[in-house]
Amino acid sequence: MRKKIVLKSMLTAAMAMSMLFSAVGTNTAFAAGSEKVSFDISKDKISDKTSKDKNFLGNLLKKDLSKKIVLISTSDIHGALLEFTYVSQLRNLLKKQGAEVLIVDSGDFSTDKDVDNYIKKTNMLDNPSLKTRGIAPVKIMNAVGYDIICLGNHEFERDKTDLDDIINEANFKIVDANISKDIYAERIKPNLILGNNAKIGFFGLDSLENNSWYRKNNFECSDEATYLHECAQNQVKELQNKNADVIIGLTHLGVDDDPGKRAAKNLEKVEDDEALWPQKTEKQKKEDPTDKYDLLYKKGIRSVDLFADVKGIDLLLDGHSHTTMTGCKYFEDFNIQSCGIQFQNIGVVVIGENEKSKKYEIEDRFLIPEQDYDQIGEDEKISGYIGYVLTKIYQSEEMNAEIARNDIEDYNPEKDYSEYYIEVKKGETAYTAAERFRKELESSKNDDSSAADDSSSIEASLPENELEATEAASNTSIENEDAANSASSEDEANIEESTEETSSDDSSNEKSNDKSGKTGDHHRERHHHRNYKHGFGG
User: How many CA atoms lie within 13 A of 60 on its CB side?
Assistant: First the structure.
């Protein structure tokens, strides 16, 4: 039986949920995970395939990208494994246009999360990240070809062994500057430079909200916001000394209100040297009154506080608060971008050489929302590998990090994984198809188990002499059948010799029918599904 994951962009009803970043009051919003964000973010750089002016992705893919470096960014994946195929295919499309491509992530890639106000992706997949203790997403990220990431706080939520397995399994580079552990000195760097066309400097920072998790894993860290800012400034200086052309922070800090409380005060008590006030017109002040979370604090631990205080950062690719944002509404030249949660968006950053200054700089950046993923399409090899990983998890009687590392093979680009594709039927989303596929595998496994139990039960109920007699009769029957088959084969050989010429013509016709028959039907059926359901394939 041929299985297929054609994960097509899924989400008619689910998309409505994903866009639930709905305003509450005049300037409070809730991310998909119910994180409260009162700070005035902007979302003006989100691609829209239906708009001529805002079809940022479509326009980019028409350009000659030679000598450009394009970053593909993700964050807070939290168990949404199916959409990795889009990241891989986007890289393929950009390379086709001549770009050098780097794939980056801003943390929380190794754990599942049941997200409020959103499609229950990890539940539908039955929590593969949890079952494999983070190994399944890492295996897939290796297959896709991620280049560099920062760790998120949820990478630390389990025990030290799990974290060791995640770090040791990863083929990509890791940067984290404000947390450290001696035994990881070679694997986790505070900053790194990547890129051939230009020198792109990356540094990583982790949230101060979960220091107890870091310490549980014997990592050194500071609780002080001042240290966080000083640490970031030091990374910028180091990267500048290394002649980095562009400096980018992979940060897991977020912009939600809770960490903001570390610095936010009543407005009348805020001193001028403690914070920056939003740049609003009198009309905007009346329509959108300022609250304490709209200020940028020198001792704040949100990404927006850090960016305002630390000089020399070209861009922060942020995570943690599950916020879809491309900047700040009332602050100019505020370069922060965040992808939301569970592949609500994929980020793009284009870096090129300025014709006048001959220096490399960020030319463009935007988010691709999930409803536009059919513009990208699937990487069918990666789709097959994702199906393979899920199949190994669902068929396993027992699963943990060690078993996952040993039993789930690393991606082999020369291998055909198409037999593991999961077909998306009419009326399904990719995740409902994967859920159905999982339940079918579980049902099949239970049936096999029941049949094995019944057989064992019958054998156990037979007296020893009857069991021996049954086995002897069975062996005699097999011997007689072999003898009969041998005689039959001799007769068939004589018949075949006399009809060889005729059967040769028939065989040729059968092969011709075979090429346009079953295989062709499957091929047409596959594209038929693509016609009525866009998404994991496009």
Answer: 31
Tokens of 309: 């205080």
- Alpha-carbon gap, residue 56 to 53, rounded angstroms: 8
Q: Mapping DSSP to helix (H, G, I), strand (E, B) and coil, where does residue 57 land?
A: helix
pLDDT at 449: 61
* DSSP element (H, E) containing 325: strand 324-325
d(CA 393, CA 408): 8
| The residue type at 524 | R
The pLDDT-based confidence of 368 (bands split at 50, 70, 90) is: very high
Residue 183 to residue 180: CA distance in whole angstroms: 9
The arithmetic mean of pLDDT across residues 111-129, rounded, is 89
CB-based contact 275:295 (threshold 8 Å): yes
Tell me which H or E stretch contains 524. Answer: helix 518-532
Model confidence over 203-259: pLDDT tens digits? Answer: 999 998 877 788 888 788 888 899 999 999 999 999 999 999 999 999 999 999 988
Mean pLDDT of the chain: 82
In this predicted structure, the answer to whether residue 48 has a pLDDT above a threshold of 80 is yes
Among all chains, which residue has been given the structure tokens 């790194």?
192
Backbone angles phi, psi at 407, to 5 degrees: -90, -30
Structure tokens at 159: 């025990």
Contacts of 472 (CB under 8 A, 6+ apart): none
| pTM score, whole prediction | 0.80
Check residue 216 and give its pLDDT: 82
Q: What is the largest CA-CA distance in the chain?
A: 104
What dihedral do alpha carbons 30, 33, 36, 41 form, nearest 10°? Answer: -60
DSSP letters of 202-258? EEEEE-STTHHHHHHTT-EE---HHHHHHHHHHHHHHHHHTT-SEEEEEEE----HH
What phi, psi does 256 have (nearest 5°)?
A: -75, 165
Pick the residue with more confidence: 340 or 482?
340
Say how far apart CA 69 and CA 360 lie, in whole Å: 10
